[in-house]
Amino acid sequence: RAQINPHFLYNSLSLINWKAIEYEQDDISRITLALSNYYRTSLNKGKNTLMLEQEVSNVRSYIEIQQVMHDNSFDVDIDISSDILKAESLNLILQPLVENALLHGIDIKRQTGKIWISGNVSEGKLILIVKDNGRGMTKEQIRDLFNSHAKKTNGLSAVGIPNVKERLELYYGTQGGMEYVSSGNGTEVTVFLPAIYDMPEEGRKN
Q: How far apart are CA 110 and CA 28, in angstroms?
């Protein structure tokens, strides 16, 4: 994140957007705005945390771009309880899970895909779930997926997912983590972290 000049990026995307509007290219304008929002939230002024509603906005922008790239060949259902939108979240924990569902689940199965994203609070913890109806993974693939020493195992990326798990555990200790359940009918990933609501709008910690 530190290597990206945000002002140059946002100014460039703004220029593309205005050019798209000038030539009545609504699709290009919509994608450009989604990309701008995605990077604005991802960079997050260098902070590690943000409000969950910002994290959800980030993943919505990512999904909008991917749906255009996939010619709307998959559906998404997002059901996040309004009670938890003001809670603290680590930055970029949902997007890698959605990306993994697309690349290694839905794209491979070659059928009409669907991704479900849900969130609620239980016993003082935020419970976020990303589920897909893709190909699924074996127990061995799940084990290898969390082997952070390998860049690829059994054709699966072993970078983004272990990174999310390690960040959750590093930041929240035993109160944060991730669970994977998979079968031939798809994969379900559960992320849990403490429900913290006492953070300012721009994020709580660096």
A: 27
Are 27 and 68 contacting, i.e. CB atoms less than 8 angstroms apart? Answer: yes
SS3 91: coil
Buried b (16+ CB within 10 A) or exposed e, 110-135: eeebbbbbebeeeeebbbbbbbbbbb
Residue with tokens 């429900």: 195
- What tokens were used for 14? 């703004």
In angstroms, the first-to-last Cα distance of the chain is 13
> How far apart, in whole angstroms, are the C-alpha atoms of residue 13 and residue 29?
9
How do residues 53-67 score in pLDDT, each as one tens digit?
999 999 999 998 888
Distance CA 173, CA 184 (A): 32
- pLDDT tens figures, 10-35: 777 787 878 777 778 888 888 888 88
Separation between Cα atoms, residue 42 and residue 25, nearest integer Å: 26
Q: Is 96 in contact with 158 (CB distance < 8 Å)?
A: no
Do the beta carbons of residue 154 and residue 140 sit within 8 Å? yes
What CA–CA distance (Å, rounded) separates 100 from 152? 13
